[in-house]
Amino acid sequence: MYLIGNGRVITRDPAQPYLEDGGVVTSGERIVAVGEIGQLRARFSQSTFIDAHGGVIMPAFINAHTHIYSGLARGLSIKGYHPTNFYEILDGMWWKIDRHLTLQGTRYSAYATYLECIRNGVTTVFDHHASYAQITGSLFEIADVAKECGVRSCLCYEVSDRDGVDKCEQAIAENADFITYCIQQDDPMLRAMFGMHALFTLSDETFEKCVRANDGRTGYHIHICEGLNDVIDSRKRYGMLPIERLEKWGILGEKTILGHGIHLTEPEIDRIAATDTMVVNNPESNMGNAVGCSPVLTMYRKGVMLGLGTDAYTHDMLESLKVALTIQRHNAGMPGVGWEEVTSMLFYHNAAIAGRYFPALLGVLKEGAAADVIVMDYLPFTPFSDENIDGHMLFGMNGRQCRTTMCNGRLLYRDREFVDLDEEKLSADILQAAKKLWHSVNPGSKDCEG
């Protein structure tokens, strides 16, 4: 049993939103009490005390869309890579990386990602994986690392026609096998979706195979309208809008996540809302890829279940939150919009999205909720309470201020030290895996030496 105290508590629970000097008590996988620190110390005197050092005690973050396969790419410069459009970014960078990513590379990409998640207070991730060098077993490698690191994970494999029929069928089988495994194991920390890349890389024949292999067992995690490629391809080859094509194959629904959604029309947004399909915005990635600004304001107004992800551009959800707000204001030409939308996406909708897959109550500190708790080093020099916490987070906080991370009652990170993981050894092993990948992508590069 742990008592996390000596800090300000932000609960995201309307019944008790803020405690100036509070604490959270956890037992096993659940929170058993939230209250004033003096009362908790008296009630739970035998608990192990975790000192927040005057910081902010709050629910851990959820990342609703990321890519573990990019974990070893930081700092990589690919020879001859000078993209002028979105397709060239995919083919020249990301597809080239995943075509060289082995099972070992996947494993260390997962370690790199989960270490960064824990450092930034992220305890739940929805990942969309690709490793076309070695497909079979890749989701199981990630799942193994997720269990070791203690991060709640919903995984899928990115099916695509881009590397031929054999690779496509291996990708379909990897999804199907992992879904079967998750159903059989029924691990509350591990879930599966059926992953697909983007419509312009998927034929109707492949859609049919995916739907048959899934057999209604789980939802789909698919990129949609990230670039104009989907729009042009759907209209030219199939005579319909991208969302119409998804609806034709029964992809839409409350268990499906659509990543990005930049170039959606209002009628398509209406269909997404009507089918209770989830959409996850990834603002930094969209800006970096120069693909445009997602119609977040319209989707929010129409009642779409709209979450916030990072697309692996960062693992800092507060960084993503800041960019989500600024791009919406910039795009609308209106400095007063976006606040409610983006804060709801991160702090409430991401928890609701996770609730469609995981049995525990996430995103809130209250009795019975999952013991997913973080402590942020933040000593405000202006008034601070539940009434202005989002302003403090947007303008004063970042993920690396996280000093302690607990997931499902397991203490992962305490006072900036990993509890069960050998960070030094893992970092050295990740570095060697990165050098191996970089050498494969860029033979002879001096960055790959050593």
How would you characterize the overall build of this protein?
The protein is α/β, with parallel strands linked by helices and 450 residues long. It has 15 helices and 18 strands. It has helices at residues 37-43, 86-98, 103-119, 138-149, 165-185, 204-214, 229-238, 242-248, 266-274, 283-288, 296-301, 317-332, 339-355, 389-396, 423-441, and strands at 2-10, 18-27, 30-36, 48-51, 56-59, 61-66, 122-127, 152-155, 190-192, 194-198, 220-224, 257-260, 278-281, 305-308, 373-376, 402-407, 410-414, 417-418. Helix 3 packs across helix 15. The protein starts with a strand and ends in a 9-residue tail after the last helix.
Short structural summary:
By secondary structure, the protein is α/β, with parallel strands linked by helices. The chain contains 15 helices and 18 strands.
Largest sheet: 9 strands, mixed
Q: Note the beta-strand portion.
A: 15-25%
Question: What structural category characterises the helix and strand content?
Answer: alpha/beta
The radius of gyration computed from the alpha-carbon positions, rounded to a whole number of angstroms, is 22 Å
**Number of helical segments with 4 or more residues:** 15
Task: List key phrases describing it.
450 residues, alpha/beta, nine-stranded mixed β-sheet, 40% helix
Topology:
Blueprint: E1 2-10, E2 18-27, E3 30-36, H1 37-43, E4 48-51, E5 56-59, E6 61-66, H2 86-98, H3 103-119, E7 122-127, H4 138-149, E8 152-155, H5 165-185, E9 190-192, E10 194-198, H6 204-214, E11 220-224, H7 229-238, H8 242-248, E12 257-260, H9 266-274, E13 278-281, H10 283-288, H11 296-301, E14 305-308, H12 317-332, H13 339-355, E15 373-376, H14 389-396, E16 402-407, E17 410-414, E18 417-418, H15 423-441
Parallel strand pairs: 1-4, 1-5, 6-7, 7-8, 8-9, 10-11, 11-12, 12-13, 13-14
Antiparallel strand pairs: 1-2, 2-3, 5-15, 15-16, 16-17, 17-18
Helix pairs in contact: 3-4, 3-15, 5-6, 12-13
